[in-house]
Amino acid sequence: MLGKKLVTAQKRGETRALCLGLGMVACSMMMYFFIGITIVPFYTKSVWTTETVCKVLKANIEDKVLRPDSEGSEDEDTFSYPCLQVWVNLTASGQEVMLYQTEDTLERNPKCSYVPDKLENSKEVKARIETIASNFKRYHTFPCYYDPGGEQTNVILSRLYPPKGLLFAFLWPTLMFTGGCLIVVLVKISQYVSVLSACQ
């Protein structure tokens, strides 16, 4: 009687472990799919792939308050901020080009190097832009990214999804997939050993 209870409990444990492993594999596949349709297209679309050194030529804050040129909702159209324009000397080609924070900055407003998040306090936005401008004037040389193909003549300060970020995004689903497969394999090995023991 006790042996039957032990066998039943063992089967239930194996079933739960098998369901856990298969669930982990299924969740990891969903994460792979989500990353593949969100992050990967932005990574492959970016043409600023080569890192070089940029030297600041001038960093000016326009007195005129500009609005984003990108299409959006009415609330976004009413959001205004000082326009920071940073011009740098591209070491790779020696050209004078405009610097943008990320690829998204160029799409949101190609006239400004930095587009702040939508904040209610306009003084905070102005103070942040002034701090960024002073930092550019203080640190004249810094790494940046440019387009080696020449499609984009401007440069960006940082990529939204660098190669390390892409690898980190794939790290967690890979660990989950590996763990799920390992659980399934261990359960199958346990069942195989149990069958061999029963036969003997």
From TrEMBL:
Keywords, comma-separated and alphabetical: Glycoprotein, Ion channel, Ion transport, Membrane, Transmembrane, Transmembrane helix, Transport
Predominant place of localization: membrane
Parts of the chain that traverse the membrane: 20-43, 166-187
PROSITE patterns according to UniProt: PROKAR_LIPOPROTEIN
Any GO CC annotation of this UniProt entry: voltage-gated potassium channel complex
Superkingdom of origin organism: Eukaryota
PANTHER family: CALCIUM-ACTIVATED POTASSIUM CHANNEL SUBUNIT BETA, CALCIUM-ACTIVATED POTASSIUM CHANNEL SUBUNIT BETA-1
Name recorded for this polypeptide: KCMB1 protein
